[in-house]
Amino acid sequence: MSSRKTSVFFIAAAGMLLGGCNRDHIKSYTIPKEKTPSPFMGQMPPAASGGMPEMPPGHPAVGDSGQMGMPGGDTGGGSAAAAENSLTWTVPSNWQPKALGTMRRGSYSVTADNQVGDISVFVFPGAAGGLVDNINRWRGQIGMTPLDPSKAEAETVAMKTTSGLPLTFVDLNNGSGDGILGAILVQGDESWFFKLKGPSALLAKEKSAFVDFLKSVKSK
């Protein structure tokens, strides 16, 4: 009887031990609720190796002044186009062309009896100092005293080109063998200056050709 009870006890104990071992393998897990991603996070491009986000194909590079500059900004150098004359003229056949230099729009020389005269054409914006100031500048170039403004009209001749452009003509002689034949033409917002400077004897011979030159001036 005691032996039988002992066997039953061991069988029951073994069953309890095995049952306890099986319960150790049963575990419960709590799965956290997935967070809703921020709408901005989903739109942010992945970072490139340089640390800046990669942009879609064709997007201008951030910080590229050539692409992202202000409208009308200077995107580079470039030389300005050479200014074109708004007037044209016919040069006498005995005048020889010379280098224009940086200021002249026309540059010629004329020779007669071993004397040389210089012909120049200049243009400046606006009134360029006015009629009297410019005539006095020419007078100063050949050693003449300034002209009184009240006498300017008496020292000038109003004329027109063949195409109808108005000119103011002057014939200056310093009494010492040098002189200037000059004309001023105001065209739009420009003032044009035509001048023949040289010995008085040469100017006397070339005056007719110079006047014909002036009359040939016309707008393009």
Automatic annotation (TrEMBL):
Annotated PROSITE patterns: PROKAR_LIPOPROTEIN (PS51257)
Protein name as annotated: Lipoprotein
Organism from which the protein derives: mine drainage metagenome
